[in-house]
Design goal:
The protein is mainly α. It has a domain of 189 residues: Rossmann fold (3-Layer(aba) Sandwich), CATH 3.40.50. The strands form two sheets. Strands 1-2 form a two-stranded parallel sheet. It has a two-stranded parallel ribbon with strand order 3-4. The longest helix has 24 residues. The radius of gyration is 23 Å and the shape is globular. The mean pLDDT is 90.
């Protein structure tokens, strides 16, 4: 799932691909997209499994390539391998060709959507408000249906779902937990002390001030121009009273998420022993400043002030 340590896992797997060969494990480069900020993930392969892009001949070619590898375990990783729009024929072919294990980490839905929204504003040019974004992407929280999508092809015993919570991980590390799980699945004992550590945190989030400025820039007709975003960021950074913490998801949106996730939460808890913790609504901190029209107006006005003055001065200058 998105925003559950996937970038760190993917970057670590890619960095240690030679060391993992000693355990007969391959992090294949087939269908891999290399992105140092987001992670070294199998974006192309993941996209090829979706209903709108599925090509049976192309998947059979991928399967033949995977079978040609000398490793007994092949690892593929992408957040969208757990989606409702995966083509059933694709899952059927994969299930018939390999003994598949599916590993996923599940996060508090309120925190999940808050972080996912920030990611989309930052990287995808999203101009939606948080509540509209949640409505458009609510399928990501049908955990029960997402699991069932794979259950019929690989069996429930081969699906490993874990809460994305430090308290659940040995040493409080999702990487440690993942390699422990990979060792269990492969029947080997991976010596994690011999694996190369990541040099920096992967895919860290921006603070709320930067996200608000980026959102306003995304709403501009020419938001793709980097200069537009810089103007909004500079304006937001000059506002000392602008909060930079708390959830961007509104309290009402969080309440709706808690109410509508119950069935899926209960399914994972009872059938997968995956008990995702959720706090009481009053225990979450919400950032009301993010939704303030006054603050947004001030950022917008200040962002355009200098450029407007510059345009006027250019008009007043005599021709050379």
């Amino acid at each position: 799932m998105h925003k559950t340590g996937s970038s760190s896992i993917q970057s670590s797997l890619f960095l240690n691909r030679d060391a993992l060969k000693e355990y007969d494990i391959a992090y294949t480069e087939r269908g891999l997209v290399k992105d140092e900020e987001v992670g070294f993930r199998h974006l192309k392969f993941s996209n090829s499994l979706k209903q709108h892009a599925f090509d049976e001949a192309a998947l059979l070619s991928d399967i033949a390539h995977f079978n040609s590898l000398s490793a007994s375990t092949i690892v593929l990783s992408h957040e969208d391998l757990l989606r409702l729009d995966l083509h059933e024929k694709a899952l059927e072919l994969l299930g018939e060709s390999f003994n598949i294990s599916l590993v996923a980490y599940v996060k508090d839905p309120i925190l999940y959507f808050n972080d996912k929204y920030k990611e989309w504003v930052r990287r995808m040019g999203c101009a939606l408000e948080p509540s509209d974004f949640v409505l458009q992407h609510f399928d990501y929280l049908h955990w029960d249906r997402l699991a069932k999508k794979w259950e019929s092809f690989i069996g429930r015993d081969n699906i490993y779902l874990s809460p994305f919570e430090k308290e659940h991980f040995r040493n409080g590390s999702v990487l440690t937990h993942f390699y422990d799980l990979l060792s269990h699945i492969c029947g080997v004992q991976i010596n994690q002390e011999r694996l190369a550590p990541l040099m920096a945190n992967q895919n860290t989030s921006l603070n709320n001030k930067a996200i608000l400025a980026t959102l306003l820039a995304n709403k501009e007709p020419e938001h793709s121009h980097t200069g537009v975003k810089k103007k909004f960021l500079k304006s937001a950074n000059q506002m000392r009273n602008l909060n930079s913490s708390g959830l961007l998801i509104s309290r009402e949106c969080a309440r709706q998420l808690k109410a509508r996730i119950w069935h899926a939460w209960y399914y994972l808890k009872t059938l997968y022993n995956c008990n995702v913790s959720m706090k009481k609504l009053d225990e979450y901190k919400f950032d009301s400043a993010f939704h303030s029209y006054r603050i947004r107006y001030d950022i917008y006005q200040n962002a355009h002030k200098k450029s407007l003055k510059k345009r006027i001065s250019q008009l007043l200058l005599p021709n050379a």
